[in-house]
Amino acid sequence: MQVNPYLFFDGQCEEAFKFYHQVLGGDLCAMMPFAGSPAEADVPPEWATKIMHTQLTLGNWAIMGSDCPPGSYEMPKGFSVSLQISDPDKAETIFQALSEGGKIQMPLEKTFWAQRFGMAIDKFGIPWMINCE
Predict the structure, then answer these.
(1) Residues 10-50: pLDDT tens digits?
(2) What is the 3-state secondary structure (H, E, C) of the chain?
(3) Whole-model pTM?
(4) Partners of 40 in the beta sheet?
(5) Which residues are paired to 13 by β-bridges?
(6) Which of 39, 63, 122, 129, by CA, is between 20 and 30 Å from 79?
(7) Which of 84, 74, 87 is nearest to 125 (CA)?
């Protein structure tokens, strides 16, 4: 069994996943718009180019996402996407990139359990935890 986060956006899915690909690397393997899919009829015409499904694969795990149909988006709450990073310098770089334009909830710093740990909500409203043991 594998657990992968599925993130929902209010029209910024493509921008968010291109940003995550730039920051995290990996393989951006899918970017399917509503246009041309069976779901196209469920969204207004101006929403046709929005993303019905995308996936960023990073090693053995993936982050997936889509744009919610207009009027159905809710801000994420009650979870964080947790990244386990072994290199403190890489943890710093990723944390800074993800927190830029967003909100730092806990600065990335040494804790009793990790060389670095921090929490931030990115500019797309997605909560992240960076843990570097």
Answers:
(1) 999 999 999 999 999 999 998 999 999 998 998 999 999 99
(2) CCCCCEEEECCCHHHHHHHHHHHHCCEEEEEEECCCCHHHHHCCHHHCCCEEEEEEEECCEEEEEEECCCCCCCCCCCCCEEEECCCHHHHHHHHHHHHCCCEEEEEEECCCCCCEEEEEECCCCCEEEEEEC
(3) 0.94
(4) none
(5) none
(6) 39
(7) 74
